[in-house]
User: What shape does this take?
Amino acid sequence: MTSDRTRTRMVERLKKQGITDEKVLEVMGHTARHIFVDEALESRSYDDVALPIGHNQTISQPYIVAKMTEILLESGSLSKVLEIGTGCGYQTAILAPLVDKIYTVERIAPLLKKAKNNLWDLKLKNISYQHSDGGWGWPEQAPFDGIIVAAAPEKVPDTLLEQMAIGGVMLIPVGSKNKQQLFKVTRTEDGYEYEELEAVSFVPFLSGRD
Assistant: This one.
């Protein structure tokens, strides 16, 4: 279930679901998703489902990871990307080969440690990590060309909007537990443009550090 053939089937499914960016599909096909989930769930690691990773968190379904990555890259080459919600590190692993530098923030210390180990094993070195409240972003490294958020606040945090570069793009789920929409936010010279993309289901965006 963790073979190249299994990943190939996942990529073919992503194509049928509308993912067209060849670079994204290539990275998805070469990244071992099974190393990011518990051994008991390995047989489901390439299914198109979110899976639990402990601490009431999940690894997002492959389609959502691919979709958010593809949309983020539509604006062109990205030199600095902020990721809110490292989780087990799978989304980070997909982004890392496609951008110059990732700054990833996780509020749950054991998850961040696990993600670091996973990503180090994959020899991904263009990643900086921070154990912090995601709502704070990473102001010392702002502005960012791209921001990708893996938990759903009820409204887009002003702090993250302020850390976007002019022309920068943020992908963020917004809403309550039972009703969320994925938004693409673009910062312009005059303010922010919001585009509603599709219904999604993410864990809630929580404050503080654990």
Summary: The beta strands are 51-54, 57-59, 81-84, 102-106, 127-131, 144-149, 164-176, 179-187, 192-200. The longest strand covers residues 164-176. The chain has a mean pLDDT of 93. Helices lie at 4-16, 22-30, 62-73, 90-95, 109-121, 158-162.
